[in-house]
Design brief:
Chain lengths: ~325, ~325
DNA sequence: TTTATATGCGGAAACGTTTGCGTAACAAAT
DNA sequence: ATTTGTTACGCAAACGTTTCCGCATATAAA
């Protein structure tokens, strides 16, 4: 079985290479009959166009990259689902890159994109990411980029987020109205805009309700489970412990529940809990967990939709695009009065 | 800023294109001094090699594809993590494809791979997948493929699985020893080898313990949550309802818990539950869930490791490779006597 | 002195496409 | 009869690499 490419098709049909190429692309310059002949032979011989050659020539890769910190979180898993579905609809392919919250990896990954490997990038920055030169450099090369969830404030481009401030405010408010007098916020970064938004919403709620706000109530967690658990235990066995906790990321829920369990503190009687979480199983927890559910799938979809819009329409400017998809507070047992 | 490629580097340095290329690849034919000059200029000018050109010429894409049914499951999320980590170590890139359990999509995706887009494929087949011509066709083109978790029996290649038969046997045994007299198995496919293994383990345990085995106890679930819930309710409000349930995939857990809750059946008193699940939050459920925890991350890692082994070493044969990584039964409240 | 051997580099083809430009044939308009 | 236009196609140049050759020069072996 010899190699089957555009050239061999052309020879077989006594046509030129260009005609075959155009026929396969359904060009208007080619007669219907010729098109039919070409397509027929192509399918018969099981012709599959070489993607590298066409990418090289056309400078379009038909690929987008998704750069995220981690995929172990159900938020990103659902987001990927959304992204992939849109990509498939548009005939695009999806590359996945995990930064593991490392700025250095993020830089290396973006740098590589300068070779034209991908036509566009969907990104949620790492917790470490402070500067943004690597992002700007990539965009300067003409590669469109849209942020979803975690965005960099230093870069002017589209960003799909959820209403972090508001949902955090609502969560805090909910805890206050449930009788909490001292509310702790578990954060995972002090630089991420998303974390700051959540923190701001929390603070604003405390302010509006004339609650004392102490810096000690804002706990910066790490990426080490054991360490976080220890943190939590320390926090909760303090005499001046909080009676309300907001976990600003899904995976911190486990620590809170475990710490409470080991200290024999009752949720929600001793301490009420609400968590930013997309866990399907939140309502099965003991007690069922009040969550701020983010529209992960939709965020993925709209981020992808937006990037394709800019890829199809070159003079569509991503700069001003700001899509905010609201989260939902699902009140369950962990926070009731 | 003019285009910066190998040619412009060569001109700038008064070297030939081939020399520059060789220098960048650290070829032995090039003097140390020349190499230094080239590399220095390359980094100074921020040169990034064009991946499409090199792939076209060298016929190596430095990409692998991961083809899975869904990513919403925490098993696949963790597996992706494992795969990506190994890929990054090897300088490879990871393409993600979701079949959404559709054979047709799976076929289209694999067909596309024939263009040389990827050097290798990691795959977990869809529940629909019966035949395997599309897989064989791809492998006939010389693209190595390794299965992880869900494999096709018709294809001779490496497969990374967990000990489905044994872990299912163990789970059943555990329920029997906890006093269950009638145990239902919730399956999601009657064709997937993995499902059949789990079913066989279950049946064998029943046999060994001289328990009656009824076809009605094996419930084939769908991909529709509502429908499954209804199924579950029907099953459990039957007068002859089971008092033990094994959920062979993670997402079925929710249905079971919800159905029990709505029927006011107590877990584990009225019905004991164990589930194949990788949910971090299993121990936080109400009651905490006994799980068969699959080594998802490790399975991803070894699958990836194996494919790279075959990519590096052309005469390494994947055919006979069978890696079985044991799952772990984590006994918790949902199944205690 | 001749013959090998290694070292360091350049020329040019090839990988499989896409695409700008040219052109033959024929019809319609002037 | 000439011009203009349309349709349908071919030629050949890119795209940026990798790699097979070839070819000097230098050193070592014969």
């Amino acid at each position: 079985m010899e190699k089957i490419n555009i050239k061999s098709l052309a020879e077989e049909l006594n046509l030129s290479i260009s005609t075959v190429s155009r026929a396969l692309h359904d060009s208007y310059e080619i007669s219907a009959e010729t098109k039919k002949r070409v397509v027929e032979l192509a399918t018969r011989l099981n012709y599959v166009p070489n993607h590298h050659a066409s990418s090289l020539r056309s400078k379009k890769s038909k690929m987008i990259a998704v750069v995220i910190p981690e995929v172990a979180d159900s938020f990103f898993a659902q987001a990927i689902n959304g992204i992939e579905s849109v990509a498939q609809e548009n005939g695009y392919h999806v590359l996945i890159y995990l930064t593991h919250e490392s700025l250095q990896k993020e830089q290396a990954i973006l740098k590589d994109f300068q070779c034209g490997r991908v036509d566009g990038v969907l990104m949620s920055i790492s917790a470490e990411t402070a500067g943004a030169v690597h992002i700007k450099e990539l965009m300067a090369k003409g590669i469109p980029l849209v942020f979803f969830d975690r965005a960099s404030d230093e870069v002017e481009t589209a960003r799909i987020t959820t209403d972090d401030f508001k949902s955090s405010y609502t969560a805090t408010q909910h805890l206050i109205e449930s009788g909490c007098k001292k509310i702790a916020l578990l954060s995972v970064s002090d630089s991420l805009s998303i974390s700051n938004e959540r923190m701001a919403g929390y603070k604003q709620a405390l302010l509006d309700y004339k609650m004392p706000s102490s810096p000690a109530d804002i706990v910066l967690c790490t990426h080490n489970e054991e360490q976080n658990l220890q943190h939590m235990v320390n926090l909760l066995q303090n005499s001046n412990r909080p009676n309300g906790i907001i976990a600003s990321v899904e995976k911190l829920t486990t620590c809170v529940y475990l710490a409470c369990h080991s200290l024999q503190l009752s949720i929600p009687n001793d301490v009420k809990v609400v968590s930013f979480s997309n866990l399907q199983s939140a309502l099965l927890l003991n007690p069922s967990l009040t969550t701020i559910t983010q529209p992960a799938f939709e965020m993925g979809r709209t981020a992808a939709t937006l990037i394709f819009k800019s890829l199809k329409n070159k003079n569509f400017n991503l700069k001003g695009e700001r899509v905010v998809i609201p989260s939902r507070l699902d009140i369950r047992s962990s926070s009731v009065a």
